[in-house]
């Protein structure tokens, strides 16, 4: 609220937030955050002890209901390990969720879906900075990626009965450095080309907006070269 000039100081913000019923602050990475000023607001009489208790009570009720204060032996989730998380059942569910989340904007001449039986012996090229970089496939507020459990487009396409080649063209989403020859060589020799472009948190995330909707850096050039 300070940034929006609704208040002038963190102390004023803490008081206004408490009075409005807010009981949770997200100030990641800030050593001196807004709600650290609550003791000062209490001492100055800007808020009451009863108000503070009223705000805190639902937070601890929720934490108790979630089992945060229970002994680990009482928490059934503490017994789960990667044999459960990475089980075939759960991996298949993840695949189903990924497939159902796609948005198909155009499908000229029924190109999609790519069918394994139609790709036998064909040459398939997967190009672009998002083709085989696990780190950039996750958006803001995502968990820390574990590369060994991530199927990049390249890794997934290599499960098909096709001769798959790969060329990043540029290694990162900003795509400042671009190898046209690398992309042209892979795409020019292929029957099917999959181009993987986008933004990622290197380019945009909360509090880091783009100035326009253009592809970053030289990604558009990469796409045009692949089409050509």
From TrEMBL:
Alphabetized InterPro entries for the sequence: BXL (IPR044993), GH (IPR017853), Glyco_hydro_3_C (IPR002772), Glyco_hydro_3_C_sf (IPR036881), Glyco_hydro_3_N_sf (IPR036962)
UniProt xrefs under Pfam families: Glyco_hydro_3_C
GO molecular function, one term: alpha-L-arabinofuranosidase activity
Residue span, Glycoside hydrolase family 3 C-terminal domain: 103-226
Assigned keywords, A-Z: Glycosidase, Hydrolase
Record keyword Phosphoprotein present: no
Example GO BP: xylan catabolic process
The keyword Cell membrane is annotated on this UniProt entry: no
Protein name per its UniProtKB record: XYL2 arabinofuranosidase
Gene designation: Xyl2
